[in-house]
Design goal:
The protein is α/β, with parallel strands linked by helices and 335 residues long. Helix content is 19%, strand content 29%. It is built from six helices and 17 strands.
Length: 335
């Protein structure tokens, strides 16, 4: 399958530069897979599509302030993006411009914090040892790691879901950005159940698909965790005959990863599961997601879930109706 089959025309003004206020006022496109029908709603109206006993599964990973600005002793500016914590104060990072950072290169963030490059990691990353080796201090100096297509500065808390709690992501699981505490409360009152997973969004988010054929793309591993409590809720939902509704593609990848492993009480590990058409979904019955970049692995996952032709038609419709796209954009519910 060609990556070009997942391309579409997107006018740049439809790339959302800031989030909607309140969060649940964003638009919601509803895709009905059985009837191939499309509806246009507001996100807070999602409550009408969820039944008592349905299970909403949230990724509670929290975005870290992963972007740092440093200088070499020569005065050259270097941008650092924290990717993965290896141990306290030692991080796998992306650095720009990369050719200027070699083993032994010293980087000064400010008078309180510096770093030295210990060497190269895979896929162009660098291993940086910070001085002092204090993650709290590193985070104090860091800024929101917004994607490159967002030109505005946005405070970190607004690039965070209201339920985020496990630090580790370098990009937000954006489908969850539309939920407010009030909407969650209303859903609970209706009898909708909630469960949590963790998947720390990593370097894969920043890496475009560079191959021509979908099958040749390799996903980067990302850390995930599913607790005993969540496993119990998933099992009970299945037994009741209710739906498991994944909030975001990261939740889908976590659930479909554990669905392919031997049964356990709880799961923790790394996943490089790449979901593209055709794919047999074993746990996820419905999906809440945003509108994704052309040719991206996220769009391929959505196409695998709802059917490629239907999804590409929905995206053309979204462009025509001036939906807002990407991280701070509008949402889609696939039933």
């Amino acid at each position: 399958m060609k990556v070009s089959e997942f391309d579409y025309e997107l006018p740049s003004e439809l790339i959302a530069q800031e989030p909607v206020e309140p969060r649940d006022a964003s638009r919601l496109m509803v895709l009905h897979r059985k009837t191939q029908r499309i509806e246009h709603r507001i996100f807070r109206e999602i409550i009408e599509y969820l039944e008592p006993g349905d299970l909403l599964v949230l990724n509670v990973s929290k975005v870290i302030p992963a972007r740092l600005y440093a200088r070499k002793k020569t005065g050259a500016s270097i941008e650092i993006l924290l990717i993965e914590r290896l141990e306290e104060g030692i991080w796998k990072c992306l650095v720009r411009p990369g050719q200027k950072v070699k083993k032994g290169t010293e980087l000064v963030i400010d008078e309180d914090l510096s770093a030295v490059c210990l060497g190269r990691g895979e896929d162009g990353t660098r291993i940086l040892k910070f001085q002092p080796q204090d993650d709290r201090l590193i985070f104090e100096k860091g800024r929101t790691p917004l994607p490159p297509y967002i030109k505005n500065e946005v405070p970190l808390e607004r690039y965070q879901t209201v339920y985020a709690k496990e630090e580790g992501s370098v990009a937000a699981p954006t489908a969850g950005l539309h939920f407010t505490p009030e909407l969650i409360e209303k859903l609970k009152k209706k009898g909708v159940q909630f469960a949590e997973v963790v998947l720390h969004v990593g370097i894969g988010t920043f890496r475009p698909v560079k191959v021509e054929e979908v099958e040749k793309h390799k996903m980067h591993e990302e850390f995930y965790q599913v607790t005993k409590e969540t496993i119990k809720k998933l099992r009970e939902t299945r037994e009741r005959g209710n739906r498991i509704v994944a909030v975001g593609t990261t939740t889908v990848r976590t659930l479909e990863t554990i669905a392919r492993l031997p049964e356990q009480e709880e799961y923790v590990g790394k996943t490089d599961l790449f979901i593209y058409p055709p794919f047999e979904f074993k746990l996820v019955d419905a999906l809440i997601t945003n509108f994704h970049l052309p040719r991206s692995t996220l769009l391929m996952l959505v196409a695998a879930f709802a059917g490629k032709d239907f999804v590409m038609e929905a995206y053309r419709e979204a462009v025509k109706r001036r939906y807002r796209f990407f991280s701070f954009g509008d949402a889609m519910l696939i039933l």
